[in-house]
Design a protein that fits this description.
Elements (H helix, E strand, L loop, with lengths): L8 E6 L9 E6 L2 H11 L4 E6 L11 H4 L3 E12 L5 E19 L2 E8 L13 H14 L4 H8 L4 H8 L7 H9 L3 H11 L9
Parallel strand pairs: 1-3
Antiparallel strand pairs: 1-6, 2-5, 3-4, 4-5, 5-6
Helix pairs in contact: 3-4, 4-5
């Protein structure tokens, strides 16, 4: 689905996650401004912008343009499940990387204007080291007890970039490192970073 970037969108700040295009993520939402943003999205084509917080421990965003990363993802809300304590579990489908342009608080939640990221990686791009990355991820997945069926799914994807985006959430790396992948402009650079992060130390029996 295409987004009309001439309008404003509700913004959902993510405290401990980075959502990538062509991936689905389930998160728990409890902050009032986030619940209001979700409610607005549900009545406006389920469209929402997802942006990670720089500091996961910050509860109140004093200056959103500084407290949030400048690159996020346009997404769709596909399912919201309420809990008795007021929190909700929401299923989010990442669609397209975007650059933040402006953020304002209105009606109790953040509204944002964005633009499509022009220098981002094209979905049709091919990585020279793609086969090497897949092989390394299979090795990594075995040591990290990641389901074999999940690994096989990446081998069957028709777009290499989507396979990479699917791998990243499984890596045991910091939020900042995952955010870096969202901002890269070269699929070959992404290959290099993935290979480096999946380089596990050898077991030491001594």
């Amino acid at each position: 689905m295409s987004f009309d970037f001439s309008k404003t969108f509700p913004l959902l700040p993510l405290r401990d996650a980075v959502v990538f295009p062509s991936t689905t993520r389930r998160i728990l939402v409890g902050r009032d401004m986030s619940l209001r943003a979700l409610e607005y999205a549900e009545s406006h084509d389920n469209e929402i912008i997802l942006v990670a917080q720089r500091d996961v421990n910050v509860e109140e965003l004093q200056n959103p343009m500084l407290d949030l990363y400048s690159v996020g993802v346009a997404a769709h809300v596909s399912n919201v499940t309420p809990f008795p304590n007021g929190c909700v579990k929401v299923v989010l489908e990442g669609e397209q990387i975007v650059d933040m342009r402006s953020i304002m608080m209105q009606d109790g939640f953040l509204h944002v204007t964005v633009s499509a990221r022009k220098d981002g990686i094209k979905a049709s791009e091919k990585a020279r080291a793609f086969d090497e990355v897949l092989a390394k991820f299979r090795e990594y997945a075995t040591k990290r007890n990641i389901a074999e069926g999940m690994v096989d799914a990446f081998f069957g994807m028709d777009k290499q970039l989507n396979a990479y985006y699917g791998m990243i959430p499984f890596l045991q790396v910091s939020l900042a490192e995952k955010q870096t992948f969202l901002e890269l402009t070269s699929i070959d650079e992404m290959s290099v970073r993935l290979l480096a992060l999946m380089e596990l130390p050898e077991d030491n029996d001594n």
